[in-house]
Amino acid sequence: KLHSDLDKGVGTVKYTLSGDGAGTVFTIDETTGDIHAIRSLDREEKPFYTLRAQAVDVDTKKPLEPESEFIIKVQDINDNEPKFLDGPYVASVPEMSPVGAYVLQVKATDADDPTYGNSARVVYSILQGQPYFSIDPKTGVIRTALPNMDREVKEQYQVLIQAKDMGGQLGGLAGTTTVNITLTDVNDNPPRFPKSIFHLKVPESSHVGSAIGRIRAVDPDFGKNAEIEYNIVPGDGGNLFDITTDENTQEGVIKLKKPLDFETKKAYTFKVEASNLHLDHRFHSVGPFKDTATVKINVLDMDEPPVFSKPMYTMEVYEDTPVGTIIGAVTAQDLDAGSSSVRYFIDWKNDVDSYFTIDATEGTIATNELLDRESTAQYNFSIIASKVSNPSLTSKVNVIINVLDVNEFPPEISVPYETSVCENAKPGQVIQTVTAADKDLSPAGQRFSFRLSPEASNKPNFTVHDYRNNTAGIETRRNGYSRRQQELYFLPVVIEDSSYPVQSSTNTMTIRVCRCDSDGTILSCNVEAIFLPVGLSTGALIAILLCIVILLVIVVLYVALRRQKKKDTLMTSKEDIRDNVIHYDDEGGGEEDTQAFDIGALRNPKVIEDNKIRRDIKPDTLSFPRQRPPVEDNTDIRDFINQRLQENDVDPTAPPYDSLATYAYEGNGSVAESLSSIESLTTEADQDYDYLSDWGPRFKILADMFGEEESYNPDKVT
User: Fold this and answer.
1) Which residue in 51, 159, 322, 677 has its CB near the most CB atoms, within 10 A?
2) Which domains does the chain have, with CATH numbers?
3) Closest by alpha carbon to 583, among 676, 646, 660, 666?
4) pTM of the entire predicted model
């Protein structure tokens, strides 16, 4: 309520209100100044309001007093229950935890004023979840209330928590939330086999490394705490089997380490131990975390292929052994209870040459062809054995046959030697050391012996000294040798081996006599050097030979130049023949090309040549007839050449390049008269050129030329 001291109660004062909530939340009576709330107030929405009030004269509208400010505070009541803003909750705690183990802390929030009364004082309690868990009423911390809670018994727990204000008193408001608690696993349980004996049946044909059975120990724990390791306890059968753990199923997989044989042993018994990999030291007192079971394996009999007595057979045979000779045998046996017969045959895929045969029943191997160690020293092939009762069951074994050497080749000198002896050699001097080779396979300790052949033993020139180590030395027996008397000596050497039968060969060595200096260095072994003066040295001989070669080269060059000069002169005279009228710079078709131009008309100036298109070039335009007046016998040569020059200048078929036309018209006044056929009244066929051969060698080329033309085409028309 507002009141001014100037208000006399006669209605002259008017009260006004402004500020937070004026007119919306609060209103004022203008006459009495009473302030009323026009709607419900919520402290949690707005705890206080700031307002301003003023008294105004009704008539003048002027304020009677200064504006005053006041605050309206909303008083709290318990109208909000506690709320769990983070609920529902999820928590976990290890199984077998002791009493009071911390699980989780929950918190409820009350929107009421914590400074006014107990409206915001919250107390926690468990409505559901006892007697397993407890909660602190003030802090909201949840703890275990029972010891040794076992996850394998119950894993999930749902706890209902209540938060109540007013300190938990009657009439207080309450809120609830759910806490889902999971017991996590610990390794508190050892693995256990569900039974003490496991029986397995395994065929004897099972492959090494294959799985032959599974056993499983049960561990109620979870995750890595349930991981199991299996081991075979050393004892009967432990070396034939192995066991591993299947990571997905935690089963023990028994595998075969070695082949099984029903005929050897029909049953195996051994123990398998299962233990945890990850142990918890808190539970060692419970007992050993492992268990043991017995595994009995019965081997099942299967129809198996024959078994060879050896994994591989090695045999030996001498070369050239007669065909059909037995060199060995293989043996295979059926170990099954039925004991079927066995048949043998060679795997021809690996023995295409079929050098051997095998007896199908006995397994004996014999030669089928003559063997040659020098051709093939070893044979490697396979033999297959099959059961008569079941031919599809086969086994294979490798057979190696080594061909032994028979001494059939005599030893020979290993390499051809070039042996020489000095003219000034002394007796007993070794001039060559020789070795021998034998194509036969030399057994250990074989030795070669060297000696002279009987026909050379009585000649006092050379001898052979056997060193007893498969080498021998050629020694001189004379004091000096002469190349003039004998240049070459042939020494037959007999070489024998030590095998049986003894083989020997006679090898002829060639010994050349050479000229040497005083130190034994060979200077020359050529026979031509014998007849040279003794005083000339090697350098002087080389100089003489060089001078001779130079003189020969000079003579050859001189002769070649003379022939070339003579040839050029003859070619010039041949090219100056008057019949060759026109020279072309382009290449023609050779001697058989007679279409380039007609030379016959040029030989007889009296013949009037018809206008013809040139046959050596292709004209670009049509040619015009060329009129050539006949040339008289007494026409001066100058007029004749000028006339022909003018005709070539106006000729449209002339080539577009310069061409030299040579006319060998001789004119009048020659004492010997003309040799040309230009002014001859007779044809070329009427001429007889045999007389040119009588004029001597200077006219030989001319005679040959006209003689060839006459013999080639005597009926040619000019």
Assistant:
1) 159
2) 15-73 (2.60.40.60), 83-184 (2.60.40.60), 197-300 (2.60.40.60), 307-404 (2.60.40.60), 412-524 (2.60.40.60)
3) 660
4) 0.41
